[in-house]
Amino acid sequence: MVVVCIIFFLLLAMAVATLPDFGAADSPTNNEVPARYVEQGPGETGVTNVVTGVILDYRAFDTFGETAVLLLALVAVLILLRQSPDEKAPVQKQALNNPVLQSTARLLLPLLLLYSVYVILNGHLSPGGGFSGGVILGASGILACLAFGTKTMHRIIPYSRFLLLSVAGMVVYCLTKLTVFLAGGLGKPLHLPLGELGSLFSGGLIPLLNLCVGLVVGCTLYGFFMLFAYRDI
Amino acid sequence: MALWAIISTHGYECAAIALCAMGLLNLTLHGNLIRKCLGANLFSTAVFLFFGARGYRTGGEAAILDPETLTAPEVAVNVVPTSLILTGIVVSVSITAFFLALTIRIYERYGTVDLDEVLLRVAQEQAELEQEETGGPS
Description:
Structural class of chain B: mainly alpha
Number of strands of chain A: 0
Structural class of chain A: mainly alpha
Largest interface: A-B, 56 and 56 residues
Low-confidence stretches of chain A: none
Shape of chain B: elongated
Helix content of chain A: 55-70%
Strand content of chain B: under 5%
Order of helices and strands of chain A: HHHHHHHH
Oligomer: heterodimer
Strand content of chain A: under 5%
Mean pLDDT of chain A: 85
Distance between the termini of chain B: 75 Å
Largest sheet of chain B: none
Order of helices and strands of chain B: HHHHH
Low-confidence stretches of chain B: none
Radius of gyration of chain A: 22 Å
Distance between the termini of chain A: 41 Å
Number of strands of chain B: 0
Shape of chain A: globular
Number of helices of chain B: 5
Helix content of chain B: over 70%
C-alpha cells in the first residue's frame, strides 16, 4: 500500500517536473482569457470583483448546475437519513444547557447573521459572495442549534419553512437566469442597468443571484448538520 | 538529487500530488467505507491545491479592482482556476455528505463499515433467500 503510494507519487512528480515554474508569468495558462476577464470584466458585468463576475455572469449556467448539485445532495441525504416522527432514534434530543455556550451564542448570533448578510451582499465588491456568506449563515444556524437545542430550532425553522427557503433560492436563481437566457436566445438580449461601478447596488442581477446561492448553501449546511447529528430537521 | 530539485521549485504541486496519491489509494485500495470517503475528499482537495498553485503568478494580487481608484491590480492571479475551484469545492462537499449518509445506512443495515464484510453478508442473505424459495413450496 505505502509502496504503491510512493510509486504513484514518483510517477506524478516526473510529470510535475516538466511543468513551467511556479508563478511564471509566461506560463501557457496566462493567455488571453484571464487577461480579457480582468480588462473587460468590470465594464461588461458592472462588478469590481472579477471572480464574482466570472462565476455569476459569464459562467452563471455552471454556477446554476452546482447549486443544483448541492440541493440534490441535500435531498439525497434527507431521503437517506430523515426519520419519520414515529420511528425516532434514541439520539439525544435535549439541549446541552450550557450557560456559557448559551450566553456566548446570544452575543455572537446577531453578529454572525449580520456578517453573513454583509459578506453575501458585498460579494460583487470584495472577497466573499454567496458561497462564503452562505457557509457563515449555515454555521450560525449550527451554533444556535448546539446552544438552544433542537426543540427551539424546530420552532424557529420548522421543516416546511426550511424546505421553502432552500427551494426558493434555487427557483429564484433559475427563473432569473432563464429570463436572461431566453431573451438572449430570442435575439433580444436584456441590457439591464449595471449601476455605478463599485457601489452596493450595481452589477445588474449579480447581488440577487449571490443572495440565492447564499440561501441554498446556508440551508444545505444547516440541513447536513441537523440530519447527521439528530436524524431530523 | 533530482526529486529534491523538483520539490524545491514546485513545492505546492508536489504537496498536491502527495495528497492526490494518498487520497486515490485510500479511495481505491481500502475496504473501510469511511476511509474511502476521506480518501475521496483528500483527492479533491489535492486537485484544488494543484489548480490554485498553477493559477498563481509571482507578485500577483486577487483580481479585485481597487475600491477608490477602480483600477485593476497590475499583476492579477489567473481568475479561471479561481472560479473553477470555487465551484468545485461545493461538489466535493456534496459528494462527501452523500457518501457519509450512505455509509450510515449501510452500517445500520449490515452492522459494519468494511466493504468486504458487507459484500459477504449480502451474498449470505441472498443464499438464504434462494434456499427459502427453493425449499418453500415443496
